[in-house]
Amino acid sequence: MLGNSKGGTGKSTTAMHIVVGLLREGYRVGTIDLDVQQGTLTRYVDNRRQFASRRNMDLPQPIHQTITPSDRPDIASKLAEERVRFKTALAMLDAKCDIVVIDTPGGETRLSVVGHSYADTLITPLNDSFIDLDVLARVDPDTHAVQRASRYSAMVWEIRKERARRDQGAIDWVVLRNRLAHLNANNKRAMGDVLGTLAARLGFRLAPGMSERVIFRELFPTGLTLLDLSEEEGSSKPSVSQVSARRELRELLELIGFAKKDEEPALRAAQPAFHAAAVGGDAPVH
Question: Which helix (H) or strand (E) holds 111?
């Protein structure tokens, strides 16, 4: 599950890179897009299929499911119908796939909250700024001391309890620092300090992070990821920046538990891959 109540944090881009990494590891991967309005992951998957068809390329593809919005007039019946559609899609993919990756919208929709409660692993991309840190907790503007948990952190705590009551399952939570600056600025260090404190108090694991790179935004129209560039016709040798980005992606997959440890270093450099994983936690700070 890729989740964050704030938009623009890279959830869909991260989701697609995880998906393709898992596909290239040989996993059967399903995807669900819970953003019934914007549908960014759905667009990304469609772009990928169309690009592969135009270029006659054999790109690995996930089995994708969208959740169409209900046209019921009242909110309660609307949510009930969408919840059934989600559970039906999840059950279908569970029967066919090894791993299901779910993308969520920005904002706290009822369907997104339902989806969160079915996650085994929750990955929260977080832009490396104090504006985005507000999604997790309120901090003192002068000392950066943690004052209280945010609404999203409280929601994650509640759905963890719901998951435990429903099937005794656990939700592992990973926070991914996204769009990291290349310079070791004061803001970057301060963010690292506060996130380190929050990780212990909110119960998440902190991923190493993904640097800010234009290439991520450029790939969306083609549906490609960094892991596909070596196959694109006429593509040149990956740049140093692209190799670094692939390494960061692989580190994320290793952190969440699906990386194969028996690959030779040369193979890893030539065809970096992904894998998925997790965390646990205690009650949020109040």
Answer: helix 110-116
Looking at the structure of the chain, the number of domains it has is 1
Residue 62: inside a domain, yes or no? yes
pLDDT in tens, 223-259: 999 888 865 545 556 677 677 778 888 888 888 887 6
Closest by Cα among 120, 133, 131, 105 to 206: 133
Q: Is 36 helix (H, G, I), strand (E, B) or coil?
A: coil
203 with 26: CB under 8 angstroms?
no
Question: Whole domain around residue 39: which residue ranges?
Answer: 11-270
Residue pLDDT, tens place only, 21-62: 899 889 999 999 999 888 999 999 999 999 999 999 999 999
Tell me which residue of 78, 86, 162, 147 sits closest to 286, measured CA to CA.
147
Q: What is the CATH number of the domain that holds 155?
A: 3.40.50.300
**pTM reported for the whole predicted model:** 0.84
Nearest in space to 135 (alpha carbons), one of 184, 207, 194: 194
